[in-house]
Amino acid sequence: MLLSLVLHMRSVRCVLPAAVLLGAAPTYVLAWGAWRLLSALLPSRFYQAVDDRLYCVYQSMVLFFFENYTGVQILLYGDLPKNKENIIYLANHQSTVDWIVADILAVRQSALGHVRYVLKDGLKWLPLYGCYFSQHGGIYVKRSAKFNETQMRKKLQRYINAGTPMYLVIFPEGTRYNPELTKVISASQAFAAQEGLPVLKHVLTPRIKATHVAFDSMKDYLDAVYDVTVAFEGSVDDKGQRKEAPSMAEFLCKECPKIHIHIDRIDKKNIPEEQVSMKRWLHERFEIKDKLLIEFYDSPDPERRNKFPGESVNSKLSLKKTLPSFLILSGLTAGLLVTEAGRKLYVKTWIYGTLIGCLWVSIKA
C-alpha cells in the first residue's frame, strides 16, 4: 500500500506540470494567432518583436516547472556573458531536456524570446507546436543527403534582413547520445575512424552541415558561438556506469538533483569559415566536450567526479521571472474552460490548429 502511494505521488509530480504545459498550448496559439492576423500588414520586425515576447512568456512558464518546481540546482562553469548576443549555441545532445537547458541559459541573459532551434524534420508534425516553432524561427532539417542547404540559407537570410535577434540552438550530433544504444555509438565511432578523426566516448561524432550553413549565412551578423557541454548529475547506475539521461517526464519527477553546464564563448573571428577546416574545428570542440565528460563520469578520483574542472556558480532562477507567466497562462486557460463557448473554442483550436499547422508545414517548412 505504501509502495502504491509512493508510485502514485511520483506520477502526480510529472502529470500536473505536463497537464498545465500542454493544456496551455491552445491558449498560447490563440494569442499568437490573433497577433499574427493583426500584424499581417505591419513590417515583419513588429510581428517578430511581439512574437518573441509571447514566446518568452510561454517558455518562462516552462522554466517555472523545470527549475522552480523541480528545485534542480543549476551549476554554471566557464564564461556565460550577462548581456544578450546574436549567437549560435552548440551543445551535446542526450535528452529531450536539452531543449530546456538552452532556455535555462538564455533566460539568464534576458534572451529567452530569441531562442530558435534547428530541429529534425519529423518534429514539424507535433500538434500545434510543430507549426509554431517554424513561425517563431525554427528550421527543420533532414539528415545527410536529404539536407536542404538552400532552404536553410534562405530562411536565415530572411531573419537577418529583418534584424531578428538570434539565439540559434544546434545539436551537431543529430541524435541523442544514449549509452544503452551501443549500435548507434559504434556506428558513430566507426564513422569517425573512417574519416580519420579521433574516436569519442561520451558524445557522438558531430555532423558539420547545419553548423556550417548557419555560421556561413550569419557570420557578419553573429557576435559569437557558445560551445555548451551539459551533464545531468545522477545519470549513473549502481556500478558507476553512465546510463540514459533523464527524459522530460523523469526530470519533472525530480529525478535529477543538479545540471552541470560548461560554457565556452568563442569569438567568431576564431572560427574557420571553410567547411573542411570547420569540420575539423567542430570535432576538436567535441573532443574537448568528451574530455570534460570523461572527467565528470570516469575520473579515477571520486572527488573529481560529478563536476567539471574549474569553479562553478550556483545559479538560482528567481520566481519573479517565471511565476507571473504561469499565473497568466494558467489563468487564461482556466477562463476558457469555465464557459461552454470557451471549451468549444479550446477544442476547436486543438483540432483545427493541428490540421492547419500540419498542412502549413507540409508546404512551407
How would you describe what is shown here?
- The chain has 365 residues and is an alpha/beta fold.
- Helix content is 50%, strand content 13%.
- It has twelve helices and eight strands.
- It has an eight-stranded mixed β-sheet, with helices on both faces.
- It is globular, with a radius of gyration of 21 Å.
- It starts with a helix and ends with a helix.
- InterPro entries: Acyltransf_C (IPR032098), Plipid/glycerol_acylTrfase (IPR002123).
- Belongs to the 1-acyl-sn-glycerol-3-phosphate acyltransferase family.
What's the arrangement of secondary structure elements?
Elements: H1 2-23, H2 25-38, H3 44-69, E1 73-78, E2 87-91, H4 98-107, E3 115-120, H5 129-136, E4 139-141, H6 149-161, E5 167-170, H7 182-194, H8 209-218, E6 224-232, H9 248-252, E7 258-267, H10 275-298, E8 312-315, H11 323-337, H12 340-363
Helix pairs in contact: 2-3, 2-12, 3-4, 3-11, 5-12, 6-8
